Amino acid sequence: MLRTGGIVGALALAVPATPAAAPPPFEILRWTAPGAELAALSTQPAACLGSAAVEVQAGEALFNSPRLLGGQAAKAGLSCAGCHVNGRDNAHFLMAGVSDRAGTADVTHSFFGAARGNGRFDPVTIPDLARPGKVSRDPAGGALESFVRDLIVDEFAGREPTPAMLAALAAYVRAIAPCPDGDPPGRRALDDQLRLIDFALRGATGMARRADPVAARALLAAARHQLGLIAERYPAPPFGAERRELLAASRVLADMHDKAANSDGFIAALSAWRAAFEKDLVQRLRRREARSLYNPANLAFVAPQQDNR
Ligand code: HEC
């Protein structure tokens, strides 16, 4: 089942009559192995970043945005982070035509984009980007930048990223590190989305200042995707009002796309948006998080679904 990602798609489909009869379609379940739904929805590998630079934050926001990719991936709502959760790996990843078992993917297949297909179905284990791998992370050679560029454009049929977008993605990948105290299991929470929205907005402001409207727009799209993920966790009823406000907030960001070339007006509009978002809606979402589907206790209805497959 493929549909357009983002908040409009999420809102159109995620309106169950009763949770037991029609569970909300969580985007993540499109690439989650049967039986691992609850784990994928409520846990994630821990991430510890070696830097708090705005560039790294912009890179993390882009890394989590399906709009960075094109074709099948964008349609499914799959971002870099769908496979590399929190920049790490994804033991639960399973997608027909892409994986042969959970935790694997073939990124040289023509499923996502025709350019890079090698004609063979040869999935490999999704690597943890916190560990050294095949691709050199040395900034001097630029090997990481060109690897990521080819991944986006050739494998995932995405639009050519600007040099600043590539630099941000590479800076993020270089900053991913194992946690100092080992890797405590991470829980999924509203804060994941709020943090990425914050990173996307900071990044968009920075990109507008350096006159890169393409990157600024990509970061707006990244923020909107996170709003859609919040909406998945606050089903109506009882969260009808919050969902309407999330949708309205997403539309305001969408309307800013055209302003991205005028840096002053754009930055002012972004900060007005942020103030309005944080003033009331974020407070309410936070207060009611325990009643939302971020709370694993409220996700029990996902489990019976597994037995019927
Ligand atoms: C469909 C799952 C999937 C998606 C989406 C994905 N990757 Fe990967 N990634 C993989 C797999 C599998 C490999 C290992 C490929 C290999 O070893 O040939 C990999 C390898 C990498 C590596 C090299 C790691 C090393 O060995 O040094 C980097 C860096 C990377 N991915 C970054 C990204 C970025 C950035 C994006 C988004 C633009 C992305 N990936 C999207 C599955 C994915």
Low-confidence stretches: 1-21, 305-309
Order of helices and strands: HHEEHHHEEHHEEHHHHH
Distance between the termini: 15 Å
The main pleated sheet reads as: 2 strands, antiparallel
Give the tally of β-strands.
6
Tertiary shape: globular
Mean pLDDT: 89
**Which molecules are bound in this entry?**
heme C
Query: How do the strands of the widest beta sheet line up side by side?
Result: 1-6
Key traits:
309 residues, mainly alpha, two-stranded antiparallel ribbon, 12 helices, disordered N terminus, disordered C terminus, binds heme C
Provide an overview of this structure.
By secondary structure, this protein is mostly helical. The chain has one domain (about 10-35, about 40-295). The chain contains twelve helices and six strands. It has helices spanning about 5-15, 35-40, 55-65, 70-75, 80-85, 145-155, 165-175, 190-210, 215-235, 240-255, 265-285, 300-305; strands spanning about 45, 50, 105, 125, 175, 185. The strands form three sheets. Strands 1-6 form a two-stranded antiparallel sheet. A two-stranded antiparallel ribbon has the order 2-5. It has a two-stranded antiparallel sheet with strand order 3-4. Helix 8 (about 190-210) packs antiparallel against helix 9 (about 215-235), helix 8 packs antiparallel against helix 11 (about 265-285) and helix 9 (about 215-235) runs antiparallel to helix 10. The longest helix has 25 residues, at about 265-285. It is globular, with a radius of gyration of 19 Å. The model is unreliable at about 1-20 and about 305-309 (pLDDT under 50). Bound molecules: heme C. GO terms for molecular function: electron transfer activity; heme binding; metal ion binding. Keywords: Heme, Iron, Metal-binding, Signal. This is Cytochrome c domain-containing protein.
